[in-house]
Amino acid sequence: MEIAFLILFMVIIGSVIGGVTNSLAIKMLFRPYKALYIFGKRVPFTPGLIPKRRDELAVQLGRMVVDHLLTYDVFMKRFQSELFKEKLTLLVEKKIAEWLTSDQSIYQLAEKMSIEQLDDKLENQMVHFVQKKINGWLHEDNRIKDLLPSQIDRDYYIGKVVEMIIEKGMTYFQSSEGEEKLGQLVDDFFADKGKIAAMVQMFIGNSNLVDRIQPEIIKFLNSQGTKDMLQSFLYKEWERVQEQPLGELVPNLSPIRKEVTEFVVRKIDLKEILYRPVRDLTSSFYEEAVEKGTVTVIRTINQMIIHQAEKLIQGLKIDQMVTEQVEAFELEELEEMVLSIAKKRTKNDYIPRCLIRRPHRFRSSDDRFLYLRNTNKNTFIRMKDIV
């Protein structure tokens, strides 16, 4: 039994000596904090090792963090992790939803961001933009076909124009105005033919001629040949006009450009849009805006991370940040922190592990064990073997 207590006593004494030695070694690394001088001569081994080489230690720590801890691969691995993507997506969705359901107007949100007179600025920008687009669109050298959509159905529209011409012509010649005009044409025709033609007109009668000519004109307009003739004529004119520069058809385009610009700006009520609550503007497409907006923002962020992450990380100058923080750290606090870690380590590894626990109950009193545990392994020792 004496051997057991001797072993326990030696372990306790060793633990105490180890703890005191660790604490003393740590203090010797830090103290004295400043160099000591006697008669103008610096006392050897002052200041302590860490205060003396503090700048070098700070630089080395900064390089170690950048080269081995917070590397580009570490950042990219974290950025590309599913957890980061999930949290980023939730954050973006939340922010977009908050913005789209805001009771404030775009103008008020702009004022919060210190953007003043947004309506005037946007209106000037819009006028400039519209003018630029219309000037490019209504340029003198542009051909007509360059201004028209490529998918326009030429046959459909020309057919509609032909039907309209024939319908309007038939309606006109069947009206009283058309009959009157036919009578004037007949009078003018015979008046130019001399006395013989006038005598023929007198015998036949002007009204009889109009009654005979009018059905023939209606029949002519309603015939398939007339439709084909008009379509052929319009096709040829359409092809010719399309190849003409706009400046040839309209010599002076400046007034047209100005009127079109004023019309577009007038139709776009910019101030009404800017002063309405955002939720009113986005209510009809809220879900789609949140979904597509989130996808767009996430895609933009991912592209920025892929192409700019290395530059951003380098721009942060993490090594310099670590160096500055280490240099600014108080030596007393650093010493206290290291000592607390050492004390905790000593307490956990030595003192509790050297306590004699209550013997376990076994079937025989001779089989009781003394449980000693060191830092490496657990050992059961028979008390009767020790004694």
UniProtKB/TrEMBL annotation:
Pfam family, one: DUF445
Transmembrane segments: none
Swiss-Prot/TrEMBL keywords: Membrane, Transmembrane, Transmembrane helix
Chief localisation class: membrane
InterPro entries per record: DUF445
Compartments, as annotated in UniProt: Endomembrane system
tRNA processing found in the keyword field: no
The keyword Transmembrane helix is assigned to this record: yes
Tree of life domain: Bacteria
Family: Belongs to the UPF0754 family.
Protein name: DUF445 family protein
Species assigned in the record: Bacillus carboniphilus
